[in-house]
């Protein structure tokens, strides 16, 4: 009985350490839009990895190499002059889908976490992967933009507001929504 009690007490002392050792959880955002156009027209607007600036209002330019080949890279310049570098990981013209990852981002500031300064990336996320998919849905076309990522600060200290889950999720939702809404407007008008 003493051994069982000792085990329970030890477990209770270790539980908080295990909870805090876990770190950040993976987050996910998925946004969609229905566009009054055929799938081929919509795919032709979004498929080129080097042309995000043509339909996303926050992107002022795209510098790219590699076209739509897996391994192609692009550096996006945002309207605040921050940059994001991404790599194309998958491209399937037949399924009208591609997947890309963020490799690096410029910093838009710093924040103090437990006495140590940390960069605030252009988009407050880390380990970001995203998919863009176009599919016919009746006489419309559905575009889905899905991302899986972690918040900007993945350490075990208390994360600052600038790098927490809510800020990361809101940023990606805003980016996706403004891009998809602009895409719809450009194609339908």
Automatic annotation (TrEMBL):
InterPro entries, A to Z: Polyketide_cyclase/dehydratase, START-like_dom_sf
Signal sequence interval, chain numbering: 1-21
Keywords from the UniProt entry: Signal
Record field: transmembrane: none
Keyword Signal: yes
Protein name, UniProt field: MxaD protein
UniProt organism field: Methylophaga muralis
Taxonomic path: Bacteria, Pseudomonadati, Pseudomonadota, Gammaproteobacteria, Thiotrichales
């Amino acid at each position: 009985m003493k051994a069982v009690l000792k085990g329970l007490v030890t477990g209770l002392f270790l539980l908080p350490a295990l909870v805090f050792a876990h770190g950040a959880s993976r987050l996910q955002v998925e946004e969609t839009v229905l566009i009054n156009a055929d799938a081929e027209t919509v795919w032709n607007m979004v498929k080129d990895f080097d042309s995000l600036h043509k339909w996303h209002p926050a992107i002022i330019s795209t510098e790219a190499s590699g076209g739509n080949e897996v391994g192609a890279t692009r550096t996006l310049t945002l309207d605040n002059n921050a940059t994001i570098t991404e790599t194309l990981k998958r491209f399937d013209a037949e399924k009208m889908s591609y997947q890309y990852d963020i490799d690096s981002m410029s910093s838009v500031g710093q924040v103090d976490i437990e006495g140590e300064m940390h960069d605030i990336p252009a988009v407050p996320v880390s380990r970001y992967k995203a998919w863009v998919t176009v599919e016919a849905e009746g006489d419309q076309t559905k575009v889905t933009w899905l991302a899986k990522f972690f918040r900007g600060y993945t350490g075990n200290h208390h994360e600052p507001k600038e790098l927490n889950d809510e800020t990361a999720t809101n940023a990606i939702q805003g980016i996706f929504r403004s891009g998809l809404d602009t895409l719809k407007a450009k194609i339908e008008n």
